[in-house]
Amino acid sequence: MTSLKVSIAGVTLKNPVITASGCCGFGQEYDKFFPMERLGGISMKGMTLLERQGNPPCRIAETPAGMLNSVGLQNPGVEAFLEKELPPLLGRDVVKIANVAGSTIEDYCGIAERLDSSAVDMLEVNISCPNVKAGGAAFGTSCETAGKVVSQMRRYTTKPMMVKLSPNVTDIVSIAKAVEDAGADAISLINTLLGMRIDINTRRPILHNNVGGLSGPAVFPVAVRMVWQVANAVKVPVVGMGGISKWQDAIEMMMAGARAIQIGAALFSDPFTPVKVLEGMEDWMERNGVKDINEIVGTVQPW
Amino acid sequence: MAYLQGSCPIVKKRQLTPTIFDFTLSCPQMAQQAQPGQFLHVKVDGFSLRRPISICRIGKEESTLRMVFEVRGEGTAALSQLREGDQVDLIGPLGNGFPLLSPDKKVVVVGGGIGVPPMLETAARYGSNATAIIGFRNQGAVILEDEFRALGCDTRLATDDGSAGFHGFVTQLLDQRLQEGKPDLICACGPAGMLKGVVKLAQEAQVPCKISLEERMGCGVGACLVCACKTVKDGREIFSHVCKDGPVFDGNEVVLE
Description:
The complex is a heterodimer of chains A (303) and B (257).
Chain A: E1 6-8, E2 11-13, E3 17-19, E4 41-43, E5 60-63, E6 66-69, H1 78-85, E7 95-100, H2 105-115, E8 122-126, H3 137-140, H4 143-154, E9 161-164, H5 172-181, E10 186-189, E11 193-195, E12 198-199, E13 204-205, E14 212-215, H6 220-231, E15 238-241, H7 247-256, E16 260-263, H8 266-269, H9 273-287
Chain B: E1 4-15, E2 20-26, H1 28-33, E3 39-42, E4 51-54, E5 57-59, E6 64-70, H2 74-80, E7 87-94, E8 107-112, H3 117-124, E9 130-136, H4 145-150, E10 154-159, E11 166-167, H5 170-180, E12 185-189, H6 192-205, E13 209-212, E14 228-233, E15 236-241, E16 248-250
Parallel strand pairs in B: 8-9, 8-12, 9-10, 10-11, 12-13
Antiparallel strand pairs in B: 1-2, 1-7, 2-6, 3-4, 3-7, 5-6, 13-16, 14-15
């Protein structure tokens, strides 16, 4: 028997496959394709203290091997989350990760405090959303502010905190170290890469927000590189994401140093991607005599 | 109800105009569940996003769904190259369709351009009790007119340039129809400007009106929130989502810009 069990910041996941924030709502939609218990975890839609309506459409553009989005953190706010979105997840055997975003440090702290007594298993601190004018990636692109968000939140929560990093920085390692020093229990990366498409007929950007976040297979090599760099520089567990669309990608990401992986944009093309990734990983483990998936984490042998 | 995904063979392919194609797909389970106004989320090999395409006819006995789509870009161009026997990866039927009134009700369906196909199944339920008002740019762009007539619908055609049918817009024909008597429901799909005109006439005539919207989509199931459209709920403007809250909305709740 192979074991796919992994542990992130003291939270045990039955397998390392997590659906990525922003791509799977609050878990209910993809539950209509396959039971959410198949997953190790769900990282839910980024939530803010108060409801947000997000950006005007158009919010999505196709790109070679990927897509741009500029949803702009549309979400019902933390109170509505606790009242409406979390209750249907109670009793479901899947790790529930609340993705937390804000315009100010006080926002982040307020949500952390509000979620502290909830059934959420872990917080994913989103300091990397490229689609909001205030906050978001503004916090995640400097070591000082990134560290400050985390250390301030720490005072308001006993939940494990996983900090989600932006790839839109010159030195990902220094940001990763800063959030680790500030008290992050885990690090997840990468959020989307800032991009743009233009309609050549109208000479207008396709996205109403002009720019948006690039995800999908196109970003996978960037994600592998950043996960590898960060995993080599920090002691806390790293969760890798960015363009994973098949089981081979998941194995590769784990060899780069990820303890678990997240799947996002691939859901839109094939909603069963997480299940296929899991099945493919299990087959690969059996063929290669790998008894415990943890054995492969960070095992890439660099030249 | 669980969402269905499947690889479905094209059993019949037709080309209706230089840019509009008509696929009949064999998909037994989806055909049983489908309702007029719902859509299929269609995978095209080599493209990362699926294409939402409305259901044009439901063949419950034949276990088929028919979709009529326009080549808009590279994805739909690639889709149009598929041949009979080829498989198409579908998710569906998705979204909320048009309300299903008793077939003896008087229903007016209004379609503009590529908004016409979903109105065919909607009209089919009401047969000769339906008035079908369909509009196109010109004679060369006219599709499905004979099929509305074959269903027994009171079919009224308009073209922008007058090359076929009435010279003018569907809203003018709707205005005329409403003067002849009050229907129980108006259902419409087409460009935003057309829908705006239809909703206005429906409001003036105090007839319930349902409209089908289109927006660029991601997941198709309400998870990713990209297909936003402005609606009014409890007196305030919010962004609803075409895939899950629609594609059919009440005409009074949508803010058309």
